[in-house]
Write a structure and sequence with these properties.
Length: about 300
């Protein structure tokens, strides 16, 4: 069974924010669209129950995110509890704790990991993330490659900061056996005119054209119809994926994910701010699985493509 929203989009992925806490201070962070600082995090048991119910409604993939998911001391327990219900369990992390966690995470059932790496230059890395931890993260990536596959590197590209490093990152991905994801800076409509956004926004469409030219092969993913480019380098072939959400109607028309905030609400879209549906209160007030499933269905029906 798979649920479809009013726009004919199947909902097969759940993106769960485990916490709003983070040990980094990236100045551009959208915190997965969770705008208010809240505590009240879901417990491992509550997360497991949610995923069990969602898996019966067609959820096959779960992404753990945040904030920084690895700052939760019960992260291994969470992974262990969820894995039996989903085919693909992944995490997006800043990589700061991967050196010690990659192996135990894999053992607990994590299938793969995306690690944010916005620069290979120590000064630029610090400028972007607010922390001097490039070496630690590089060691974490090295460890992750041993136990998790694939390892993707998330590079959010920003004008005046790291746009000059794109091709170095392509080489680095080939060298380390990782997949590079180039992410366009994103923000909700009301923020796109701000001085902040205009200063840092670096459009990735021209970069895609250059990738297209250099690629030996191009493929398209089902989700968001994202393009994947296979680029020859001195270190072998690099796989490069482009995440270009802004003003992209094709991206939204092929969005298959429902989000969950760290305080137990369904959130239908990263960029919307009027789309939260609380299920945690219902859980804590003794709602049955069938009642939680109804709340899930209601959230699916609220989904709308953001850019259309
Ligand atoms: N607006 C929007 N941005 C997205 C969406 N998915 C990913 N992004 C952007 O891309 C960033 C990186 O996404 P990841 O957490 O690495 O996950 P992913 O690449 O989408 O998922 P996988 O390819 O399955 O690993 C997100 O934090 C967003 O900035 C989406 O559905 N909508
Ligand atoms: C919000 S973070 C959460 C997971 C983890 N803390 C990390 O940084 O990987 C998820 C991803 O979103 C990206 N991101 C954050 N704010 C963004 C923005 N405004 N535009 C584009 N990507 C953004 C980050 O670079 C990171 O790759
Ligand atoms: S590490 Fe992730 S959650 Fe933390 S500030 Fe950076 S992008 Fe945001
Ligand atoms: S509808 Fe568009 S902007 Fe919203 S989460 Fe899906 S892809 Fe992102």
């Amino acid at each position: 069974m798979v649920l479809y929203d009013r726009f004919g989009r199947p909902v097969t992925n759940l993106r769960i924010s485990l916490t709003q806490d983070c040990n980094f201070r990236c100045f551009f962070c959208h915190r997965e669209g969770q705008r208010f600082n809240v505590r009240n995090e879901m417990t491992p048991e509550e997360i497991e129950r949610l995923v069990r119910i969602a898996s019966r409604l067609g959820i096959k993939k779960v992404k753990l995110t945040g904030g920084e998911p690895t700052v939760r001391s019960d992260i291994l327990e969470i992974v262990k509890r969820i894995k039996p219900y989903v085919a693909d369990l992944s995490m997006t992390t800043n990589g700061s704790r991967l050196k010690e966690l990659a192996k135990p995470l894999a053992k607990a059932g994590l299938d793969r990991v995306n690690v944010s790496l916005h620069s290979l230059r120590r000064d630029v890395y610090k400028q972007i993330t607010g922390v001097d931890m490039l070496e630690t993260v590089l060691e974490g990536i090295e460890e992750a490659v041993k136990y998790l596959s694939p390892v993707k590197l998330n590079m959010t590209v920003m004008k005046g900061l790291n746009e000059g490093e794109i091709w170095d990152m392509v080489n680095f991905a080939a060298k380390t056996g990782t997949i590079l994801q180039l992410i366009e800076l994103e923000a909700p409509k009301e923020m796109t005119g701000t001085a902040f956004f205009r200063k840092y926004f670096y459009p990735l469409k021209p970069v895609e054209r250059e990738l297209e030219k250099r690629a030996l092969e191009t493929r398209e993913r089902r989700m968001h119809r994202r393009k994947k480019y296979f680029i020859p380098t001195d270190y072998g072939i690099a796989e490069v994926e482009v995440v270009r959400a802004m003003h992209n109607t094709v991206f939204c028309a092929n969005c298959t994910r429902l989000r969950v905030t760290s305080n137990g609400m369904f959130k239908t879209c990263l960029l919307r701010n009027d789309d939260l549906i609380d299920f945690l209160t219902a859980m804590r007030n003794g709602a049955s699985d069938a009642e939680i499933a109804e709340i899930f269905k209601k959230a699916v029906l609220m989904r709308e493509p953001y850019w259309r």
